[in-house]
Amino acid sequence: MKEFELKYGCNPNQKPASIYMKDGSELPIRVLNGRPGYINFLDALNSWQLVRELKEATGLCAAASFKHVSPAGAAVGSPLTELERKMYFVAADAELSDMACAYIRARGSDRLCSYGDWAALSDVCDAATARYLQAEVSDGIIAPGYTDEALAILKTKKKGNYNVVQIDPAYVPAAEECKDVFGVTFRQGHNDFRIDESLLGNIVTDCKDLPQQARIDMLVALITLKYTQSNSVCYVKNGQAIGVGAGQQSRIHCTRLAGQKADNWYLRQHPKVLALQFVEGIRRPDRDNAIDIYTSDEYEDILADGVWQQTFAVCPQPLTVEEKKVWIATQSGLTVGSDAFFPFGDNVERARKSGVQYIAQPGGSIRDDHVIDTANKYGMTMCFTGMRLFHH
Questions:
Q1: 382 pLDDT exceeds 80?
Q2: Which residue of the set 33, 40, 231, 238 is catalytic?
Q3: Which residues span the domain enclosing 128?
Q4: Is 370 an annotated catalytic residue?
Q5: 323 found inside a domain
Q6: Does one domain contain both 156 and 185?
Q7: Is residue 334 within 8 Å of residue 236, measured between CB atoms?
Q8: Do 235 and 149 belong together in one domain?
């Protein structure tokens, strides 16, 4: 296939629309089901690069959950704990592959933002992954291959219209890339910068402790940021991006946004949240919305309105501000990455409140000494990578 015609571009008024190779060669993708749109393909191609590079950097299968050309979550494959199964609505007896675990964790990073996502897998999609995805609200998936059983399962989604794209894993893009903005053509070299553990050698803080899990988490953070709309900051725990702040105009707003998402992820593990009893037959998105409201400051107002009866089988007692504060304070061992330098120590202060111990950022600010001093104050380990990762 040399050209794929799209229904429209970013918006319905933007016609005609298609994807094609400028040199006239075959596209590196095959559409196995559905009819993906313009934004679908932007998500597909960005998310594929992310998971491919995560696999190369860590040796572990990887998955991403994309929305509007930024990851809502990304993760490498590792077995789910009993707690994670409960958090992510996975049956206790469900048999899961590493690939399925990677996607479940990627989507579980921010289940609200992953609603209607584009899924990306570094490896062949198997039946276990497809079965989990079948029950989620999702627009499409890209992977290097699909088992026959997985493809049959995915073709049942969205009344048979679920978007399934297969990409050639051997495809290598051209060394230069172009795009047009307002009739003006921009040209640049493709960002083929390799992110691996060699970037993590310049530890600038007094604390030099950097265990292997933190190294993996730094790679997850940095590769996720490489494909996140800038400015961006990413919090990671145990190989899972649990808070992504994308497209903010100031660094501190990225750090706050991503930190709040990391806090929300951790609040899903609070005993009161895990004990919530929902009305019979409630859909997963409604459960996610209810949990989000329950852990927010709005819950008591909604409780007073009696809306809880539409969601909860038993009216739950509010999770107080103090309870949330105490619970979040028990979070620890997180890694935070930034696509550009932290200009002030306030970013470190905010990251610490969400349990960050390890930091990876380019360095290069005129206030690097202040940022380092702030990290030293809390016994953190910080690496300067020397490489900015802007993405637009």
A1: yes
A2: 231
A3: 3-167
A4: no
A5: no
A6: no
A7: yes
A8: no
